[in-house]
Amino acid sequence: MAFKKFPIAAYACPETAPLQPFQQHEAEITQGQISLKNVTVSFQRRHQKVTAVENVNLDIKAGEFVALLGASGCGKSTLLNAIAGIVKPTEGSIWIDHQQVTEPNPACGVVFQHHSLFPWMTVLQNVSFGPKMLGFPAARSVGMQFLTLVGLEKFKNYYPSMLSGGMQQRVGIARALATQPPVLLMDEPFGALDAQTRSIMQEELLKIWTTFKTTVVFVTHDIDEAIFLSDRICIMRSTPGSIKEEVMVDLDRPRLPDVMLTEQYIKVRKKVLAAIRQESLKSFNHQSH
Ligand SMILES: Nc1ncnc2c1ncn2[C@@H]1O[C@H](COP(=O)(O)OP(=O)(O)OP(=O)(O)O)[C@@H](O)[C@H]1O
Ligand SMILES: [Mg+2]
Predict the structure, then answer these.
(1) What's residue 73's pLDDT?
(2) What pLDDT, on a 0 to 100 scale, did the predictor assign at position 38?
(3) What is the Cα–Cα distance from 184 to 176, expressed in whole angstroms?
(4) pLDDT value at 233 more than 60
């Protein structure tokens, strides 16, 4: 699968060179289109079949930022892992840029729910690993450029265990971006962070996304995070997981945290809350019978 071609300056520049912006314009966004067709994922748990995700149909435009929002256990990670090619759909199919996803592929950069850096590698080695495996020239320089992007160039020789949770997640994001994938899949990447760090990370992520215009699928169970970040929110229902409703987030960009005080924001929030409440009530009634 071909990569999005950014005019990345890193291949030629030494690791100390300042970060070159490699913006692409809206009209140029051609890669990163995702299509899920009747996707069902079931697992065998002992003698029982568990359907984690059922009959999901979803089309995501190249460059779109989509949030998957739902309660714990509703199948968000399963759906994301299926898009990444880590989990195989039991039924249906997943397509990225008209190529069927059948195995993990370099078109997707993944930031996992729990940070998954290699503990025996330094921060720079972690970020350069993907480019190196894919045979990029000057993988180290590429890694350095992405470390700079997340503001951690000074920590290049540290090991992950020497960093805070927020810094580890920033390294995780740099690592996922370093192969310049058309699609970035993020599974509750800021879930373990305190409120202030989380808010800063959300803003940073939006800046990165504005620069790269990569397609983002972002899993969260936090309503405000979903609204603040995304163009569209897919609200999931549980047991089995499926998409209950989609809400468009028509808030101007760039977004700053004070957007949350606007009338427009509150309108979207009410819509999302109503959909989620309906779902929670259903599941509450289901459990109490
Ligand atoms: N490998 C597996 N084997 C068996 N069951 C699984 C497997 N992976 C997920 N499940 C089940 O599928 C359902 C959905 O799990 P999933 O991890 O996708 O939910 P989630 O929405 O990501 O939850 P959380 O918000 O807690 O991360 C759960 O009932 C879970 O137990
Ligand atoms: Mg999960």
Answers:
(1) 85
(2) 96
(3) 7
(4) yes
| Tokens 């992007």, residue located | 149
Tokens representing residue 204 in the block: 């940073």
Mutate to test the pocket of ligand 1, among 42, 56, 78, 218 (most ligand atoms within 8 A of CB): 78
Average pLDDT, the chain: 86
Residue list, CB under 5 A from ion ligand 2:
77
Give the residue, out of 41, 42, 77, 222, with the most ligand 1 atoms within 8 A of its beta carbon, to mutate for a pocket test. 77
Ligand 2 centre distance from Cα of residue 77 (Å) = 4
pLDDT digits (tens, 9 = 90+) for 119-153: 999 999 999 999 999 888 899 999 999 999 888 99
Q: Which residues line ligand 1 (CB under 6 A)?
A: 43, 45, 50, 52, 70, 72-78, 113, 221
pTM of the model: 0.88
Domain ranges (residues) in the chain: 29-102+183-190+215-279, 108-180
Half-sphere exposure (Cβ direction) of 152: Cα atoms closer than 13 Å: 29
Q: Give every CB contact of residue 7 below 8 A, 6+ residues apart in sequence.
A: 22
Instruction: Report whether CATH 3.40.50.300 matches the domain 29-102+183-190+215-279.
Output: yes
pLDDT given for residue 27 in this prediction:
52
Element (H, E) at 217: strand 215-220
Counting ligands in written order, the one closest to the CA of 87 is 1
The pLDDT score that the predictor gives to residue 289 is 56
